[in-house]
Write a structure and sequence with these properties.
mainly alpha, 2 helices, 74 residues, 0% strand, rod-shaped
């Protein structure tokens, strides 16, 4: 009777290479996002001028966080 070779090992997934690096980066980006949103909401309670300035600044910060999360630089 003929013997069969065992099946090949399945390929390793991307998380096996660096399990903590990607998770830490995502958690850091989420924490910076929440800090930005909370600070913007706090400045919005101070009046119309601080609210406008904080919304303009927060827009730029949140877009930068989004770009970092999308890995555009790689």
């Amino acid at each position: 009777m003929m013997d069969l070779a065992p099946p090949p090992r399945p390929p390793e997934i991307g998380l096996m290479e660096r399990p903590n690096g990607r998770i830490r980066r995502n958690l850091r980006l989420m924490s910076w996002t929440s800090i930005t949103v909370f600070l913007t909401a706090w400045f919005c309670t101070m009046g119309p001028i601080p609210a406008i300035v904080s919304l303009v600044v927060a827009k730029h910060i949140l877009v930068a966080i989004l770009v970092m999360g999308l890995d555009v630089d790689r």
